[in-house]
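User: Study the fold:
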Amino acid sequence: MPAVKIKGIRINYQAKGEGEPLVIINGFTGNIRDWLLQTPAFKKRFRVITFDNRGSGKSDKPEGPYSAKMMAEDTVALMDELGVKKAHILGFSMGAAIAQEIAINFPERVNKLILLGAWSNNNDADSGLTPELMQATQLTPQRIPGAAMSLAINSALYRLIFLPLKSMMNRRMGAAAYPGTLGQRDALMTHNTADRLKLIKAPTLVITGTKDRCVRPASSEPLARQIPGAKLVKIENGSHAVFLEMSRRFNKEIMSFLSA
């Protein structure tokens, strides 16, 4: 797969299809392969751009801390490298935090915005990351050293997300490595757009699975209320990985929104 240098960091990416650009941003420790059930469907209509965030996959994994805003700047820089002036942006989980920062700080670069498994902050009782995910990601170097800690975090995380999808879980193990895991964890924990959501101008779809064990499903409601004109879709019994677990329903919602 091709790669580009952005701010001294090698970013691995893939672009397939033709048409309006659709940039998909991965979640915590995710990689390009996560979208194997979306890219073939979406590329028939769009130029689908997927990539490995700094800290995971085949992209470089510099020392942290990272932030959602930093990774939003990475995404916009990748768009620049690929000659993409404006795109639909689909962000999943941590990628949804990054997507929010793009829509707030670079509104001219966003056509339509899709936020999957998203939240605006970790400070409200009914919003943000679940206690299960917080526990899974709060391992420290004092408890488990180096790469073993990275593997432990990923193992706990994938059990939460991919328990029904064992083959996918096995393929993803080791996708992120220390210190990239820690850098991305910083972006998760510090994300906060609660007082800036009103600045988002792009037509927005907020989509969540009602059985999400990583991000509180109720987090989607304040997002949809505070983003002007946002549409909220709840997929009954969907997990955090609803895009894989219920791919046909998910793909249909995305195509319908982007086609409207």
